[in-house]
């Protein structure tokens, strides 16, 4: 460690001054290579893994008994499964935004959070992708969703947004995985070179694809990385727009509105940044990464949450305004009566509190700089965004056009078990990621050391320790 | 620093990329081939029957009309399997004591139908009516093949949904005049068939657009 050379942290830094190429590499690399398994890690992994087993058990039960073990019934056929699907896929959006759009915009503060935000995206998409499949009723026939030459002579229904979903989500998962992996290659090579254990060397070596850090390698790497960023950029907008069309293309009052795609995208980024903050704050505290994930990062995340939260609030307002102005009795009933005053009014009011009122505190500097408060707020936003999807899915369906079929929906214990189970899957994958891969991009941090050094007129730091 | 991998690892890496591609394509291709093969469709798989009944002999050599035995083919969903009495309408007179026909005689004596092994079995979620197909001019041979050349019966066509839809999308390729429906050896050139098919579409009020509605078969 080279801590002796570190300088005190200036207020707006995205990296603590005084770090060198070597100290950055040491610090991040040691999280994976040097540090033994810790109790904290085992406790976190253990909790995640037990919840993952809950998921396995409830999925097995679902396969055996069918979707009847869930709370869904006429008229609410889209219950927790769709709520959770939209919630998870929304959370994934921060990763893509940070990695692609902020990269193209040359926002240097993205550097230390992009790696785990991308990992978070992948794991969130994995959780999200599970729900529509579990919801299928006959999940073993999931491949019917794909267009392939089959003996039934049938294609999927191209006019249905549900089939667009299949393509949107699978494209998103593929591009996110590629982006994450390509970004990892130089770091995998660093770990390969620094690992002492033979199997670790081999493991990192295979996935480093023979990276030697030559100028040619770096040239190609930059080209691919920028191309993938370009490919991923439209996905930030398109994926959640398509998810929004699942609702908007239907005729249900409360769903059938044109504001849905943009307001879903804003909501996705809102919840995604909340999740990044939820994860980043304990991560930097436990693993001593405050030099890299600074208060500046947290403050920026708060600003993004505030901005996207305002767009979401505008979406709520427009829905209500259009219902009032459009004078469609069914839409008016759903948006102006049933949601704020109906049987699910408490859900709607809590959603408004979490998503619209609470984030307004981020106008104040003290709220954006108090770490404990930011963490608390990130949880509030996560809950609020889950409630939003619950309100959208349930309140439109449970009182549809036909009053004789009105009824109430409540998740059963298996709905909750499946939901918490996917949180377990997410946590398990996240802890495995923290244990085996660098949570911050070492290569990009070295670049940041170089750039910030230039900016502050410091002499060139010692050449990188790629070996 | 020593090298972790031998230079041959490069070749290995390239070969495994190719190998993964081949494995995936091969696996998918294998499944595609399997579901279309006789293992799955039972096409041309000959079944053992309690009595070795030869359609080839009865239809081609003797010249019995299909409808003599499958008597409800023009009026009901099921074409009908003949009761033992139908067999006995001839076999009480000829080959009355042949060993081969012992199960038929005991069926008659005990008043128990012969349990034939089923050759064509459509899934229960499909509604199929022989009646409408015959009335609209689909020949027996279109679905059942040259039954007059089958010593023991087999399935001539896969009877997959794709196969059903082929004809429901282009019924004119298979339509015949009423007197030709049960004919096994009718051969028309494609121009003749096209002209005949178009004419019969009109005459029998067949609208191909509606024939591919889900509820035509899945009711």
Largest interface: A-B, 14 and 16 residues
- Residue fraction in strands of chain A: under 5%
Please tally the helical runs of chain B, counting DSSP H or I stretches of 4 or more residues: 12
**What is the overall silhouette of chain A?**
globular
Number of strands of chain A: 0
Computed Rg of chain B: 25 Å
Distance between the termini of chain A: 16 Å
Question: What's the SSE blueprint?
Answer:
The complex is a heterodimer of chains A (467) and B (219).
Chain A: H1 21-33, H2 39-65, H3 80-91, H4 93-104, H5 114-134, H6 161-194, H7 198-207, H8 215-248, H9 260-286, H10 295-326, H11 329-341, H12 345-357, H13 365-369, H14 371-398, H15 413-436, H16 442-455
Helix pairs in contact in A: 1-16, 2-15, 3-5, 3-9, 3-14, 4-5, 4-8, 4-9, 5-6, 5-15, 6-7, 6-8, 8-9, 9-10, 9-14, 10-11, 11-12, 12-14
Chain B: H1 8-36, H2 38-41, H3 55-61, H4 66-69, H5 84-91, H6 102-110, H7 130-135, H8 140-144, H9 161-169, H10 190-203, H11 208-211, H12 214-217
Description:
The complex is a heterodimer of chains A (467) and B (219). By secondary structure, chain A is an all-alpha fold. Chain A is 68% helix and 0% strand. Chain A is built from 16 helices and no strands. Chain A has helices at 21-33, 39-65, 80-91, 93-104, 114-134, 161-194, 198-207, 215-248, 260-286, 295-326, 329-341, 345-357, 365-369, 371-398, 413-436, 442-455. Residues 460-467 of chain A have low confidence and may be disordered. Chain B folds into three domains: 8-36; 55-81 and 118-217, no CATH class; 82-115, no CATH class. Chain B is extended. In chain B, α5 packs across α6 (102-110). Chain B has helices spanning 8-36, 38-41, 55-61, 66-69, 84-91, 102-110, 130-135, 140-144, 161-169, 190-203, 208-211, 214-217. The chains are: A mainly alpha (467), B mainly alpha (219).
Features:
heterodimer; A: 467 residues; mainly alpha; 16 helices; globular; disordered C terminus; B: 219 residues; 3 domains; 12 helices; 0% strand; extended
């Amino acid at each position: 460690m080279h801590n002796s050379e570190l300088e005190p942290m200036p207020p707006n830094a995205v990296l603590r001054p005084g770090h060198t190429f070597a100290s950055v590499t040491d610090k991040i690399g040691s999280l994976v290579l040097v540090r033994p398994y810790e109790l904290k890690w085992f406790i976190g992994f253990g909790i995640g893994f037990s919840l993952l087993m809950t998921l396995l058990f409830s999925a097995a039960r679902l396969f055996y008994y069918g979707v009847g073990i869930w709370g869904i019934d006429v008229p609410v056929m889209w219950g927790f499964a769709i709520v959770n699907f939209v919630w998870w896929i929304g959370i994934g959006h921060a990763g893509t935004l940070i990695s692609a759009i902020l990269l193209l915009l040359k926002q240097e503060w993205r550097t230390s959070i992009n790696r785990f935000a991308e990992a978070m995206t992948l794991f969130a998409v994995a959780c999200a992708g599970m729900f529509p499949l579990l919801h299928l009723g006959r999940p073993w026939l999931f491949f019917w969703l794909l267009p392939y030459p089959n003996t039934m002579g049938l294609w999927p229904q191209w006019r249905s947004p549900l089939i667009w979903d299949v393509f949107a989500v699978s494209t998103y998962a593929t591009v996110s995985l590629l982006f994450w992996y390509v970004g990892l290659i130089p770091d995998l090579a660093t770990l390969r070179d620094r690992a002492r254990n033979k199997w670790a060397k081999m493991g990192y070596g295979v996935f480093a694809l023979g990276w030697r850090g030559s100028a040619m390698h770096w040239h190609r790497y930059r080209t691919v990385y920028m191309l993938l960023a370009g490919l991923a950029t439209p996905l930030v907008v398109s994926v959640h727009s398509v998810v929004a069309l699942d609702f908007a293309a239907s005729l249900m009052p409360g769903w059938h509105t044109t504001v849905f795609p943009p307001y879903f995208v804003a909501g996705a980024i809102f919840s995604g940044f909340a999740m990044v903050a939820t994860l980043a704050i304990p991560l930097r505290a436990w693993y001593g990464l405050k030099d890299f994930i600074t208060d500046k990062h947290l403050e920026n995340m708060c600003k993004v949450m505030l901005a996207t939260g305002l767009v979401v609030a505008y979406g709520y307002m427009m829905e209500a305004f259009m219902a009032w102005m459009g004078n469609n009795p069914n839409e008016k009933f759903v948006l102006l009566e049933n949601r704020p005053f109906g049987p699910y009014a408490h859900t709607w009011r809590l959603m408004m509190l979490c998503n619209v009122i609470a984030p307004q505190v981020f106008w104040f500097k003290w709220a954006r700089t108090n770490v404990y408060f930011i963490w608390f707020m990130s949880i509030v936003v996560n809950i609020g965004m889950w409630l939003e999807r619950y309100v959208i899915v349930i309140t439109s369906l449970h009182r549809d056009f036909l009053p004789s079929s009105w009824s109430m929906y409540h998740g059963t214990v298996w709905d909750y078990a499946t939901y918490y189970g996917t949180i377990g899957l997410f946590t398990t994958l996240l802890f495995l990621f923290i244990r085996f891969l660098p949570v911050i991009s070492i290569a990009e941090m070295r670049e940041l050391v170089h750039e910030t050094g230039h900016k502050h007129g410091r002499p060139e730091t010692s050449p990188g320790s790629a070996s | 620093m020593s090298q972790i991998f031998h230079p041959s690892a490069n070749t290995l890496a390239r070969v495994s990329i190719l190998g993964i591609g081949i494995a995936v394509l091969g696996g998918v291709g294998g499944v595609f081939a399997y579901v279309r093969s006789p293992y799955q469709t039972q096409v041309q798989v000959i079944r053992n029957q309690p009595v070795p009944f030869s359609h080839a002999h009865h239809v081609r050599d003797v010249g019995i009309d299909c409808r003599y035995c499958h008597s409800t083919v023009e009026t009901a969903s099921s074409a009908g399997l003949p009761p033992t009495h139908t067999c006995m309408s001839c076999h009480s007179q000829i080959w009355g004591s042949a060993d081969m026909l012992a199960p038929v005689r005991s069926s008659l004596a005990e008043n128990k139908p012969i349990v034939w092994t089923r050759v064509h079995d459509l899934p229960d979620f499909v509604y199929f009516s022989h009646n409408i197909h015959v009335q609209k001019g689909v020949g027996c041979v279109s679905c059942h093949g040259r039954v007059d050349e089958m010593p023991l019966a087999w399935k001539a066509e896969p009877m997959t949904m794709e196969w059903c839809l082929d004809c429901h999308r282009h019924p004119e390729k298979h339509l015949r005049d009423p007197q030709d429906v049960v004919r096994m050896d009718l051969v028309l050139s494609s121009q003749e068939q096209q002209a005949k098919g178009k004419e019969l579409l009109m005459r029998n009020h067949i609208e191909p657009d509606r024939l591919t509605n889900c509820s035509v078969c899945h009711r």
